[in-house]
Write a structure and sequence with these properties.
Layout (H helix, E strand, L loop, with lengths): L2 E4 L10 E3 L4 E6 L5 E6 L5 E6 L6 E4 L4 E4 L4 E5 L5 E5 L5 E7 L4 E6 L5 E5 L4 E6 L5 E6 L4 E6 L4 E6 L4 E7 L5 E9 L4 E8 L3 E6 L5 E6 L4 E7 L4 E6 L3 E9 L2 E9 L7 E4 L4 E6 L28 E5 L2
Antiparallel strand pairs: 1-28, 2-3, 3-4, 4-5, 6-7, 7-8, 8-9, 10-11, 11-12, 12-13, 14-15, 15-16, 16-17, 18-19, 19-20, 20-21, 22-23, 23-24, 24-25, 26-27, 27-28
């Protein structure tokens, strides 16, 4: 843990996004005063905000400098000025989001049909919607025309043709785990790291070219988003249980759990700054839940209200 910035603010939080070229960190906040908060990626100081954007995630196209947030309708904004440009009507329930550098298209992912809505990043227009065959979680791009998506409720990895906008395959890994979440990708060696929560927290390591399972390894509880760092050859997972697991790729067929780092309970999403090799994650402290409070989503323990001023950005690195 290199740094903890207690930045405060109200409202929930979900996906975190690092604009490496623009040196900005985007954190959506929910609640009555929901907004997209923007921080300096190097200092973690507040750099601005876009009001009334209560989204699950955000991304930026480095070519057009257009940003997109998974509100409904989708909010498109100028990444330089943080001014809203337009909104884009979409169906489903926007959640995850990915900007594919291959052809500057933004993929908006939804657990409800349509599972994917593809937007032209420059124009802010819908190109196509796709049925991915199930509820998508994290997606990754190889930058050359192929996108992979972890399909949470089917325990498979969908393979997409980014040029023709079609689903070309599903890699079934249901024998190794269910309840999919994060997906990371070693583009050089064509290796996928697919994370599953049941029956025990597991990463399934897969050959991206044919879907063959290479091996499996244990992870921490409550993985949400993950990343692969080609500079260190590590797959890293953020875990709501309060840990971060580093898996070292020694070769395309040899992997080992290198380190489990204690972070902060609730720090379940991350972003990788490929310029500094720093990882960013977010969490807050919560008071005790009411005695009659029902369990949280997916059977997670109930929690009380957020402790005022406790929301924090955590920076991890060597």
């Amino acid at each position: 843990m290199l740094k903890t910035a207690k930045v405060g603010g109200e409202g929930g939080y979900d996906y975190i996004f690092a604009d490496v070229e623009g040196r900005r960190l985007y954190i959506p906040r929910g609640g009555a005063t929901g907004q997209l908060t923007v921080y300096n990626l190097d200092t973690l100081e507040l750099a601005g905000a876009i009001a009334d954007v209560r989204s699950g995630g955000a991304t930026v196209d480095p070519k057009s400098h257009h940003g997109f947030s998974t509100t409904k309708p989708i909010t498109m904004w100028d990444a330089t000025t943080l001014k809203v440009i337009k909104t884009i009507d979409v169906d489903g329930r926007p959640d995850g989001i990915l900007c594919d550098p291959y052809n500057a298209r933004v993929w908006v992912l939804s657990h409800q049909p349509p599972h994917a809505t593809v937007i032209d990043a420059a124009e802010g227009t819908i190109v196509k919607t796709l049925d991915l065959g199930g509820a998508p979680e994290q997606a990754v791009s190889d930058g050359k025309g192929t996108i992979y998506v972890n399909i949470a409720d089917k325990a498979n990895i969908a393979v997409l043709d980014a040029k023709n906008l079609t689903v070309t395959a599903h890699y079934d890994v249901s024998s190794k785990g269910t309840g999919g979440s994060g997906l990371a990708f070693d583009a050089k060696n064509h290796v996928l790291f697919a994370y599953y929560r049941q029956p025990s927290p597991t990463v399934v390591i897969v050959n991206a070219e044919n879907g063959n399972v290479i091996t499996t390894l244990p992870t921490g509880m409550g993985v949400d988003t993950v990343a692969f760092n080609p500079a260190t050859m590590e797959a890293i997972s953020a875990e709501g249980g309060g840990s971060m697991t580093f898996i070292k790729e020694n070769s395309p067929t040899s992997f080992v759990v290198e380190q489990t780092l204690q972070t902060m309970v609730g720090a379940k999403t991350l972003a990788l700054d490929t310029k500094t090799n720093h990882l960013l994650t977010i969490a807050a402290e919560f008071g005790p839940p009411p005695t009659d409070a029902p369990p949280g989503p997916a059977g997670r323990p109930a929690r009380g209200p957020m402790v005022p001023g406790s929301f924090s950005i955590l920076m991890v690195g060597k």
